[in-house]
Amino acid sequence: MKKNQIYSALCARKASGKKSFGLLIDPDKVNYEKLEKLLTLSISAQVDYFLVGGSLVISDFLDECVKTIKKDTDIPVILFPGNSSQITPFADALLYLSLISGRNPDLLIGQHVISAPAVKRSGLEVISTGYMVIDGGAPTTVSYISNATPLPADKDDVALCTAMAGEMLGLKVIYMDAGSGARRPITENMIQRVSNHIDCPLIVGGGITDPEKAYLNCKSGADLVIVGNAIEKDPSLIAEMAAAIHSISLV
């Protein structure tokens, strides 16, 4: 497997107070034309990471999507898989997600057992990730497929204890997600409480629709902010989101 280049970079950026912006690309929602436009805008805005994946991924565009990104940019590509079939060796790294907010054993370890041989063969950098789904006020595909209830949006103590447990179990990063199309994003208070109680990098996504929210998430303790749906609707937001997130490092 590749050396822990991306994980080490995340930790280094966290240690230096630098915030990162990740653009989530769902292979089901782009074609070559849309992808090329996103890549051009992302290079100009100095996007830090591409996350590629979705809850389903029913198209055959995953491999070509990742290969196109790698061909046209130097921005690292991290797989964000909705299931064990969403693995391609053409990416740089894989968020190996364990759904620690739920109680479905299949998504805590079951799918990992099934996918382990393919992941090992892929040569991808594997980043063990404590995945926490937070109630965003609307049913999400991940909640339906996982058959797991999201953490309540107002239970900050439950969230911070869940994150602490994940870190102490050895997971390398914590990813808090309100889900695609969330009506309400994760609160700054919850992000801050969780950030104050863990040492590993904290990723936050779901329901982030404007640069101000991205900025506030970073100020509250998010190390990497992920935006997908909002940019699918308005790609011009890439530059504004990136500027807002990167401005934290300059303060």
Instruction: State the secondary-structure class.
Output: alpha/beta
| Oligomer description | single chain
The count of domains is 1
The average pLDDT is 93
Largest sheet: 8 strands, parallel, barrel
Give a count of the beta strands, DSSP E runs of length 2 or more. 8
SSE blueprint and pairings:
Layout: H1 5-15, E1 20-25, H2 32-45, E2 49-52, H3 62-72, E3 77-79, E4 93-99, H4 105-122, E5 125-133, H5 141-146, H6 156-168, E6 173-177, H7 188-197, E7 202-205, H8 211-220, E8 224-227, H9 229-233, H10 237-247
Parallel strand pairs: 1-2, 1-8, 2-3, 3-4, 4-5, 5-6, 6-7, 7-8
Helix pairs in contact: 2-3, 2-10, 6-7, 7-8, 8-10
Mind explaining what this structure looks like?
- This protein is of the alpha/beta class and 251 residues long.
- It has one domain (5-250): FMN-linked oxidoreductases (TIM Barrel), CATH 3.20.20.390.
- It is 43% helix and 17% strand.
- The protein contains ten helices and eight strands.
- It has helices at 5-15, 32-45, 62-72, 105-122, 141-146, 156-168, 188-197, 211-220, 229-233, 237-247, and strands at residues 20-25, 49-52, 77-79, 93-99, 125-133, 173-177, 202-205, 224-227.
- It has an eight-stranded parallel β-barrel with strand order 1-2-3-4-5-6-7-8, surrounded by seven helices.
- Helix 7 runs parallel beside helix 8 (211-220) and helix 8 (211-220) packs parallel to helix 10.
- The longest helix is centred in the middle third of the chain and has 18 residues, at 105-122.
- The termini are far apart.
- 45% of the residues are buried.
